[in-house]
Specification:
single chain, 351 residues, alpha/beta, Rossmann fold, 2 domains, seven-stranded mixed β-sheet, five-stranded parallel β-sheet, 8 helices, 26% helix, globular
Length: 351
């Protein structure tokens, strides 16, 4: 990957940061050789927010960095206001850089009269004036289809794999907490040359799950648990109980989005089976969890921004970590030796 910091075409680009994660925005800008453009968000006495961009946006490529982390509704509204301000300031293109898209969990109607938050937030962003969205590891990849503007969906698998390649992986196995994340876990296991297993999980409530079986042999092995997001840590603790019952010797826990809400830090940092917890900096890390390992994704986002600005391919960032598992399908217009023989309907007997 070409280092984004060597990029010289910076005159037509401006990067703003919302209040959710300014440290990540600064890291991305450092990779690009830029500084974060100033902005101001104010809260009035009636609790309404107002955002003002303090750098020129006219006919410039504007990027606004804002993961949707608690307080999620405040950060979402701030992002919408900043996008609206950039559009009103005659920006040539406005890209919302949302490393963590919180509403990706609300992707389907699995109960009567339930809201579809993922689609609603996509509509809100488009109404505000977003031309493109840059995000990472959506909890539900189908949320990508909720947008009618281009979405660049990055993955942190390569960044996390780099961490584990520095370790002795003898007798290790990659474990997904549930079958829904099994594709990501399978690709991760291929990057590390390890076997893979998955938990059979049923979610009973937002913070309560049941894992009644492990699909795969974990006896005598160290588990590398891979999840897209960890909030309360309840699923991980439940999985650890099942892994211990099935003979696993210990576990390393890895995720892209380490929210660690509620008692998650206490649950995970003190668990006897966990040797380490690894995450990325898509969201701010807990300030007092010094043992937490956080790998930066700032170079990935910076390179994606550079390529978007210069009209280059973003998909090549997935080289070696492409989450697509199915073999290539034959083209409709190419001969396929497996195709059924053509039938001559003109000479076929009438039926």
């Amino acid at each position: 990957m070409r280092h984004a910091g060597r990029w010289d075409d910076t005159n037509d680009i401006v990067v703003f940061s919302g209040s959710a994660h300014p440290a990540l925005a600064r890291s991305i800008c450092a990779e690009l050789g830029l500084t974060v453009a100033p902005s101001r968000t104010s809260r009035f006495s009636n609790d309404c927010l107002q955002s003002q961009l303090l750098s020129n946006c006219r006919q410039r490529d504007v990027y606004i960095v804002q993961p949707l982390v608690p307080p999620t509704q405040d950060h979402l509204m701030e992002l919408l206001l900043m996008v609206n301000a950039a559009r009103g300031a005659s920006a040539a293109q406005v890209t919302a850089v949302i490393p963590h898209f919180a509403y990706a969990r609300s992707d389907k109607k699995d109960a009567s009269r339930i809201s579809l938050g993922g689609r609603l937030v996509a509509d809100l962003l488009q109404t505000a004036g977003v031309d493109r969205v840059l995000t990472m590891t959506l909890h539900a990849p189908q949320v990508h289809g909720f947008f009618s503007v281009p979405v660049d969906h990055l993955t942190a698998l390569g960044v996390l794999a780099e961490h584990y390649r520095e370790q002795d992986l003898t007798d290790s196995i990659v474990v997904s907490p549930d079958l829904g994340n099994a594709k990501e876990a399978t690709q991760f296991s291929r990057l590390l040359g390890l076997p893979v297993a998955a938990g059979s999980k049923q979610r009973m409530a937002d913070d309560r799950v049941v894992i009644d079986a492990i699909v795969g042999d974990v006896a005598g092995k160290r588990a590398i648990i891979l999840d897209d997001e960890i909030a309360t840590g309840g699923s991980i603790v439940t999985l650890l109980e099942r892994l211990a019952a099935d003979g696993a010797t210990g576990a390393s826990v890895a995720c892209t989005h380490g929210l660690f809400t509620g008692s998650a830090q206490e649950r995970l940092s003190g668990h006897p089976m966990i040797t380490e917890v690894v995450t990325t900096d898509t969201v701010p890390a807990p300030p007092d969890w010094h043992e937490l390992t956080a790998r930066s994704v700032s170079q990935l986002f910076a390179e994606a921004i550079r390529r978007v600005h210069e009209g280059e391919s973003v998909s090549s960032l997935f080289d070696g970590v492409d989450p697509t598992h199915a073999p290539p399908q034959p083209s409709l217009f190419e001969p396929d030796h497996r195709a059924m023989p053509r039938r001559d309907y003109a000479s076929a007997p009438a039926r």
